[in-house]
Amino acid sequence: MHGTISLWVKALVALVATITIAEAVPYNSTNSECRYLPGDAGWPSNHAWAQLNNTVGGRLIRGVPFGQPCYGTSADAPACAKAQDTWEDLSPFLEDPVNVISSFFENTTCSPFYGPLSTDAAKRNATCSLGSLASYAINVTDAAAAVAGVNFARDHNIRLVVKNTGHDFLGRSAGQGSLALWTHHLKSYTFFEYKSQNYTGPAARIGAGAQVQEMYEHANKQGLRITGGSCPTVGAAGGWVQSGGHGSLAAKYGLGADNTLEFEVVTTDGKHLTASPSKNADLFWAISGGGPSNYAVVLSVTMKAHEDGPVAGSAITFVEKDPEKYWAAVEAWEKHLLVLDTIPGFKTSVTLTAGIFSLDFATLPDGSKEEVTTALAPFHRDLEKLSINATTKLTVHDTFLEHYLDYEAGIVYSRNVTVGNRLIPPDLVRSDTRLPQLTKIYKEILATPNTAIFIIAQNVTQARTGHIDGDNAVIKAWRESLHDLNYALINDPLATFDDLSADLALVNKWQYDLRDITPGGGNNMNEATYDYKFWKEDYYGETYARLAGIKEKYDPDSVLWIQPGAGNDKYALRGDGHLCKT
Ligand SMILES: Cc1cc2nc3c(=O)[nH]c(=O)nc-3n(C[C@H](O)[C@H](O)[C@H](O)COP(=O)(O)OP(=O)(O)OC[C@H]3O[C@@H](n4cnc5c(N)ncnc54)[C@H](O)[C@@H]3O)c2cc1C
Ligand SMILES: *[C@@H]1O[C@H](CO)[C@@H](O)[C@H](O)[C@H]1NC(C)=O
Ligand SMILES: *[C@@H]1O[C@H](CO)[C@@H](O)[C@H](O)[C@H]1NC(C)=O
Ligand SMILES: *[C@@H]1O[C@H](CO)[C@@H](O)[C@H](O)[C@H]1NC(C)=O
Ligand SMILES: *[C@@H]1O[C@H](CO)[C@@H](O)[C@H](O)[C@H]1NC(C)=O
Ligand SMILES: *[C@@H]1O[C@H](CO)[C@@H](O)[C@H](O)[C@H]1NC(C)=O
Ligand SMILES: *[C@@H]1O[C@H](CO)[C@@H](O)[C@H](O)[C@H]1NC(C)=O
Ligand SMILES: *[C@@H]1O[C@H](CO)[C@@H](O)[C@H](O)[C@H]1NC(C)=O
Ligand SMILES: *[C@@H]1O[C@H](CO)[C@@H](O)[C@H](O)[C@H]1NC(C)=O
Ligand SMILES: *[C@@H]1O[C@H](CO)[C@@H](O)[C@H](O)[C@H]1NC(C)=O
């Protein structure tokens, strides 16, 4: 009896040992030239996934495409109708572990407008798959879960992505066959006095899942302000800060990346580290503006916080059907920016759509109505000369949050857009021969149906932000710019992948046209295209080589991989979706 048990125990020990060995050398991954995709022999077994789920306390989630209720044997008409109704809203995508906002990367691989429930016979044959979306996600709520996810993806040779809000226009929070670290629930806000060689003063440690408006609300309760984006739901500690990050306080305190004090990270070797100017300083430098999800996974960021106080603001809107007058007014605005950008703290954001000009907000922290009126008076005089009748608003709010809620929080964003970008230098606008080249491109963009242009101006020169040359990875072209130029092409919900690809090609064409008139310039990579061929020079510029070196040091095997990411050359995406060694 005794012997039998002992044999049985020995057998069990042997079995466990076999499993352990099998797990330690999984699927010959070191020799595989591609990250495994579902269906590949090397793809982790159900047992391996179940073990991971166990390790992360049952927080492993299988990715489900947004349009799934419209497909398969369980197709559900009411749920499908709901998916159609909310297809253009941001909110369901923000709350989802794998689905993303960008139409292009969400792809048409499971559109709720196609499939068996469609009344249109030609659309009924469509099928549903995850496309570029992650296969699994871990609902990360602590460092241990992030470490487990990083180790699993690395050891099983599968792609690893980080998904926060899914706002990314470049598809960097998606990845076919990947495991996503879903950071949305890492919500925490701690306010304290920070003391370091570089900075002493109020600070906030913000969890990686924090979103802009929530962060502003938390800071407001402490009598503080923190730089964040304009869109209320963009992540405050994710892709926004890691690629620079502009918002309405940027002309006063600098970009998001100019306000970072430290990051709490997990590196791809599974280590939980701090990166600051004194610890892992190279990593801190890279994550402060050098691109997201490329060097490490961020769990929290500590940012400078600033004493709150009154914020003055203004808005100007007009409709002008006469193109000559309209474009004269737009050029006048560009010229006025040359002066407005020299006013400390003065930030503006303008939207142009065919025949409509909207200064959505001018923001002057700690300013008065008189100062804003004086600043905008020369532009109003130009409008009068052109007999353009504009609607104006002028305010002073007691706090930044109230200003934000009045001007920015209500702007409605929908997800059916393709976006491009260029940083516009002041010398282009200053030159009477070169400014018309810019206007010509604006005209071409707005002559295309369903487009909009955004002129987002903030002076983030070194003199303004207190940063010395190269002390973070924000590119010089941004420091020296007069404004950030974004433009959007709106697509129809029924757009096919070919339609979306054509939109992307057109948006890229304008990026190339803008490049031609701003030689040596750059782009704000967060709002630019993923497949623009000058991405190394224009998105990273003088920082590229150093960033690629830091990538090599902290993630030599490209466990994290993005396009366009510094040092991503070791792997490339193949047409069949495999990410393979080059
Ligand atoms: C409607 C809309 C409005 C916008 N408004 C602004 C604006 O006002 N100002 C501005 O500067 N930008 C703006 N953007 C651009 C925005 O900053 C980028 O899309 C940014 O990448 C979003 O970051 P996220 O973390 O919210 O989104 P996600 O798509 O979830 O992530 C974006 C990138 O960051 C990575 N990432 C996210 N979290 C982490 C983490 N914890 N660790 C490591 N990597 C991480 C992801 O892997 C991905 O590469 C806007 C975008 C949209 C769609
Ligand atoms: C591992 O994979 C490589 C190529 O993919 C193959 O040549 C090699 O034989 C494999 N090794 C083992 C132990 O299976
Ligand atoms: C992970 O485990 C939890 C709890 O047991 C379960 O609800 C969930 O479905 C599992 N996830 C996956 C992908 O199997
Ligand atoms: C659907 O697919 C079948 C088989 O591939 C094909 O015969 C049929 O014509 C298709 N129908 C439509 C409407 O495309
Ligand atoms: C996106 O959709 C198109 C068309 O359906 C398909 O050819 C392409 O492979 C898809 N991309 C991904 C990553 O699934
Ligand atoms: C993710 O985790 C959070 C925090 O525990 C929980 O509230 C939420 O319901 C989880 N989401 C999913 C989809 O499992
Ligand atoms: C921090 O201070 C050191 C020493 O003064 C300086 O060299 C460095 O550039 C500073 N870094 C940042 C990010 O401010
Ligand atoms: C200017 O616009 C205002 C408000 O839109 C309107 O009341 C007024 O009549 C307009 N004046 C002229 C001269 O068009
Ligand atoms: C930014 O402001 C500084 C002074 O603070 C000024 O020298 C510089 O010209 C301004 N930059 C732009 C682009 O207006
Ligand atoms: C797409 O987005 C725009 C706003 O960006 C919205 O007005 C429009 O209704 C949406 N849908 C279509 C079909 O264009």
UniProtKB/TrEMBL annotation:
InterPro entries: BBE (IPR012951), FAD-bd_PCMH (IPR016166), FAD-bd_PCMH-like_sf (IPR036318), FAD-bd_PCMH_sub2 (IPR016169), FAD-linked_Oxidoreductases_BP (IPR050432), Oxid_FAD_bind_N (IPR006094). It comes from Heterodermia speciosa. The lineage of its organism: Eukaryota, Fungi, Dikarya, Ascomycota, Pezizomycotina. Belongs to the oxygen-dependent FAD-linked oxidoreductase family. Coiled coil: none annotated. GO terms for molecular function: FAD binding; oxidoreductase activity. This is FAD-binding PCMH-type domain-containing protein. Residues 130-308 form the FAD-binding PCMH-type domain. PROSITE patterns: FAD_PCMH. Keywords: Oxidoreductase, Signal.
